[in-house]
Amino acid sequence: MILLENKITIFTHMVYAKKSEECRKKLEDEKNLYNQKLKEKEDELKKTASEIVKRRVDLANKNGYELVSKAHEENRIAELFEAERQLDQLLEKVRIRLKDYTKTENYSEYVLGTFAKALEDLDDDEIYVYLRDAESDALKDKILEEAKRHNISVEFKRLPEKLIGGLIISDKNGNYEINLSLSEKIEDSRYKIGSMLHLIMKEVED
């Protein structure tokens, strides 16, 4: 027969063992939960860190691209300014050469030729012809002769010196103006000369 004390001892051991098992299981569950939470936190931190790194890399790439783009744009603008400067210098040399050209006999033939060609498309009986003072005496009579062949009356006006030479034709009502000045010829050729200069500069750079 088991004594009461022994029963109590046995019962106590049984209860203790049960409680111990429950505590052990609870502790293990808590430990597993802790490890799970810890892993989730680590994964979250890794993901956050990865996103931060990615954002920083993307930002660095973006800033780098923007810096490269800015440098490229600044370089392109500098090239355009340089090309424009060289074009202006080149055209200024052309203007100087054309001023010398106005002092030659070929120049008078050129002006009369352009005037005669322009008259072919005119229907007016009266026109204004703009000439430089320096060449009026040399060209007026021949211009009048050419105009007479087309039954056109001519009144002469002064061509501004800045237009270098050539002539301008207009009707007396101000409906049209045919600019045959040498300065206008230069401006008409500006794009073509500029394009050629740009190609030359690119070939030098390459």
From TrEMBL:
Positions of transmembrane segments: none
Superkingdom of origin organism: Bacteria
Pfam families documented for this protein: vATP-synt_E (PF01991)
Molecular function GO terms recorded: proton-transporting ATPase activity, rotational mechanism
Gene Ontology cellular component list: proton-transporting two-sector ATPase complex, catalytic domain
Keyword list, A-Z: Coiled coil, Ion transport, Transport
Originating organism: Peptoniphilus lacrimalis
Coiled-coil stretches: 17-55
Family note: Belongs to the V-ATPase E subunit family.
Xref: InterPro entries: ATPase_E_C, ATPase_V1_Esu
The protein's name: V-type ATP synthase subunit E
Signal peptide: none
